[in-house]
Amino acid sequence: MPGDSTSALGDGVQEKLKALGPDWTEKAERELNESPEKIEESLEILRTLLADETSLTVRPDDAFLLRFLRAKKYDCKKAYTMLHRYYMMKLDSSELFRVPRPSEKMHILEMQAQTMLRGRDHNGSRVYIFRVEKCDTSLVTIEDVFSTNVMALEYMVREPETQIAGLTVLIDMTGFSLQHHAKFLSPYYARRTVDVIQETFPLRFKGFHVINQPFYFDAVFAFLKPFLKEKIRQRIYLHGKDMSSLHNFINQEILPSEYGGSQGEFDNTWWREDLLKHEEEF
């Protein structure tokens, strides 16, 4: 193709591709088979598939569609299926998947139950932490917590680097109680969570690391297993209280001190403030 191979792409995508830098560009090429030519070709194919879709109105911009292509490594048919499921999910379960504005969820974020770490793990993945103990179920509903996590995913998927390297999730089960938290494991919510991870949300989920789980968690996990594909099962790691085991996957340098890290105590203030700065984007 003569000239600049990114010239047919939208201005926003062109700028983001140029801003990635050589390391991220090489990672995208190596792991996703990405190139400017591949992006242009795949966007055209995906738009052709969407042109036949009469039941949904889809955001048409390159940057949005590119999320789905990267999530499925440029398999256009799989990207189209994921896009369709993404919109159907929001239509069928709007109480869970409507993306709230950050200001609507400050009361939940101020519980210090969730955060996105500033640093990335050794594979370049974003790291998201969820602390069960800090989630006071007497004050918030499961719908509140679920939609706040969806908001966090929508925040992170805006980053081209995260689209490329994916997301690692750390779940701290300290304080988990069947009396207070069993509803998080109901078939309805378990199924919706698995749908997000496996089929619906345009992110590559690279690992799920569970720490401080109770002795009966194996039984809880057995309940979830039938919903999970083998690929996801293999990415779930149960570390218990062994922080050195966790550090084999997530660098100590980016972790809070509660998890043997060097970043001080857990505090999501910076993340809450950054979410509010992007309020209008939600």
From TrEMBL:
PANTHER family given for it? ALPHA-TOCOPHEROL TRANSFER PROTEIN-LIKE (PTHR10174:SF130), ALPHA-TOCOPHEROL TRANSFER PROTEIN-RELATED (PTHR10174)
Please give the Gene Ontology molecular function terms for this protein: phosphatidylinositol bisphosphate binding
Q: Which Pfam families match?
A: CRAL_TRIO, CRAL_TRIO_N
State the GO CC annotations: membrane
Q: Which organism is it from?
A: Clastoptera arizonana
**Which named protein is this?**
CRAL-TRIO domain-containing protein
User: Which residue stretches, if any, does this entry annotate as coiled coil?
Assistant: none
For this protein, the record's InterPro entries field holds:
CRAL-TRIO_dom (IPR001251), CRAL-TRIO_dom_sf (IPR036865), CRAL/TRIO_N_dom (IPR011074), CRAL/TRIO_N_dom_sf (IPR036273)
The residues covered by the CRAL-TRIO domain are 105-267
